[in-house]
Amino acid sequence: MVKAKKVGVLISGRGSNLGSLIAACSAPDYPANIAVIISNRPGVAGLAKAEEAGIPAITIDHKHFDSREDFDAEIDRVLREFDVELVCLAGFMRLLAQDFVEAWRDRLINIHPSLLPSYPGVNIHDRVIGDGIRISGCTVHFVRTGMDSGPIIAQVAVPVLSSDTAQTLADRVLRAEHRLYPAALRMVADGTVRVSGERIMFGADEQESAPLFSPPLDQG
Ligand code: GRF
User: Which of 112, 125, 141, 178 is catalytic?
Assistant: First the structure.
């Protein structure tokens, strides 16, 4: 079996995706281990999750730095101190500057609660509902310098119901995120996916899955 890759997770808040990664990493055959968790906000729920799991949890408060570059450099220093090989952004609410993104190119992963490249940024579920689209979802991608951009590793589609509020849709997407992120990290850590230019290539056989109709055909 390949040696588990050391992962650093960057958070800013409740850390539910962090929780799903911690759970996945606890399986003996999972090809990644979380070496360190970094939060840019003190006292957030995600830090408590990290401590509960016995994983080093460090706060690097962006307010204590004069520039974005100094803040990024401190994150970089801590990641290297823990010999991190892959970095997962999990609800990390700071934009990382070009130097950092380039230094971690093809080793820096993000999860976003929309089917990118549609709906980058914030207030996604309000915008999705406002536009009346019938299918939304979430995306795990390698990070490039543009907001929520970079080669797409994996996506899940979920239906948007006409009764949805932003909250009910967010909850449905979040449940999908918790399944997608550990699966996508597994594929990156075990080498199943690699980046070719700006596209992802799969080393394993790809299979077609059932299409998602929204609304379902028998009610349409
Ligand atoms: C998730 O919806 C994630 O996709 C987005 O921020 C949210 C973080 O939630 N980037 P949590 O902190 O993982 O619970």
Answer: 112
Is a pLDDT exceeding 80 seen at residue 219?
A: no
User: Please, which residues bridge with residue 9 across strands?
Assistant: 37, 88
**Cα–Cα distance, 184 to 36 (Å, whole number):** 19
Name the segment(s) of the chain with CATH classification 3.40.50.170: 1-104, 112-139+155-204
Class of domain 112-139+155-204: alpha beta
Ligand 1 atom closest to Cα of residue 111 = 4
124 CB less than 6 Å from ligand 1? Answer: no
pLDDT at 220: 52
Q: Which CATH class is domain 1-104?
A: alpha beta
Q: What is the mean pLDDT of residues 119-145?
A: 97
**Ligand 1 centroid distance, CA of 218 (Å):** 33
The verdict on pTM exceeding 0.90 is yes
Is the bond preceding 182 in cis, omega lying within 30 degrees of 0? no
